[in-house]
Amino acid sequence: MEHIYLDNAATTPIAPEVIETMTTQMTQDFGNASSTHFFGRQAHTVLDTSRHILAQSINAKDNDIILTSGATESNNMVILQTAQKRANEGKRIITTAIEHHSVLKPMAYLESQGFDVVYLPVNAQGVIELADLKAALTPETILVTIMMGNNEIGSHMPIHEIGQLVHESNAWFHTDATQAYGLLDIDVQEDQIDMLSVSAHKINGPKQIGFLYVNEAIHLPSFLMGGEQEKKRRAGTENIPAVAGFAKAIELLTPAVKAEHRARYAGFKQQVLEILQANGIDFEVNGAGSDDMVGHVLNMWVKGVSTYVLQMNLDLAGFAISGGSACTAGDLEPSHVLIAMYGEDSPRVAESIRISFGVETTEADVTAFCAALTKIVQKNLAKQAGKA
């Protein structure tokens, strides 16, 4: 049986060029970048070259890039270390109700420590209202962290306008750009972003490598203690093969390639909608109506069939999709994103699936998926009707 992967918001396959780059680094430049001998200097050169590529991708300075194990570490570092550093200035932090759990769980911890965390609501498109943010900002607000693109429904926040509002306050502005990076153009200077998190494995790079951009004017305490790597901001020997692979993945994403990907993914979305409509499937797109979505994610309410049934049967048919965030896929908790958008009593919460396209997705894959989904939905609805 052929298996078709449509869960690219969870992770992506490593690009062949990235594998080649990493293999070269593992065999040739294996030195410790902190060592002063020839092998260490070779590794440090690769580190510097890669850091420059990472920085240029968001219009940042090289020294503002801190290498991490990925966005989860980066998000934790921003939230917990900002709280530690600025607690004497204020204890209010603003975020949204639909953030990734690597933001929400540190927030819950800070609430237990006496911090005032404001969770901004979102509308039916999964986007905050700027008026709510403006009303929540106070002189005691030390941090605003709002994701750039949502991992479950693909909504894109008005980052430029958020940056302007936060810049006028005493707070620092952080955005988790994990899902948007590689698809949308990002400029930390233009959007007045103070800190930004990214993971490589979302753009066909390796896992367990990412970066945190921190504006040079901000000095966070080190999150990991040990050596003096990353200019004393993140201890631990740098993973040179992974860093080089990350840089290669970024180099592959030229402006023309990103534009082509956006166009292809928009075409796939339209293809899904048209086929399902033609087949008489009763469904709605979660978050429909937003003009500016992160284009690879399509979240649909398939009316009358549970998420669990859809996921299980599609997997048996050879299709990898998701019921929501990959970080919660192993439990039966309902999607906090859909609850925030539609309420906990909405049938959407228990009857929705997420499809996410990638560079290896084809029109044939999408057509086959729609045929399988149609068969599963019709079979289950007929079974339910027979029991009625």
Description:
- The protein folds into 2 domains: 4-12 and 255-387, Aspartate Aminotransferase, domain 1, CATH 3.90.1150; 16-252, Aspartate Aminotransferase, domain 2 (3-Layer(aba) Sandwich), CATH 3.40.640.
- The chain has 388 residues and is an alpha/beta fold.
- Helix 4 (101-112) links the parallel strand 3 and strand 4.
- Helix 2 packs parallel to helix 8 and helix 9 (255-278) packs parallel to helix 12.
- Helix content is 41%, strand content 13%.
- The longest helix is centred in the last third of the chain and has 25 residues, at 363-387.
- The strands form 3 sheets. A 7-stranded mixed beta sheet has the order 2-8-7-6-5-3-4, sandwiched between helices. It has a 3-stranded antiparallel beta sheet with strand order 9-10-12. Strands 1-11 form a two-stranded parallel ribbon.
- The protein has 12 helices and 12 strands.
- 46% of the residues are buried.
- It catalyses: (sulfur carrier)-H + L-cysteine = (sulfur carrier)-SH + L-alanine.
- InterPro entries: Aminotrans_V_dom (IPR000192), Cysteine_dSase (IPR016454), PyrdxlP-dep_Trfase (IPR015424), PyrdxlP-dep_Trfase_major (IPR015421), PyrdxlP-dep_Trfase_small (IPR015422).
- Keywords: Iron, Iron-sulfur, Lyase, Metal-binding, Pyridoxal phosphate, Transferase.
- Its EC number is 4.4.1.-.
- Belongs to the class-V pyridoxal-phosphate-dependent aminotransferase family. NifS/IscS subfamily.
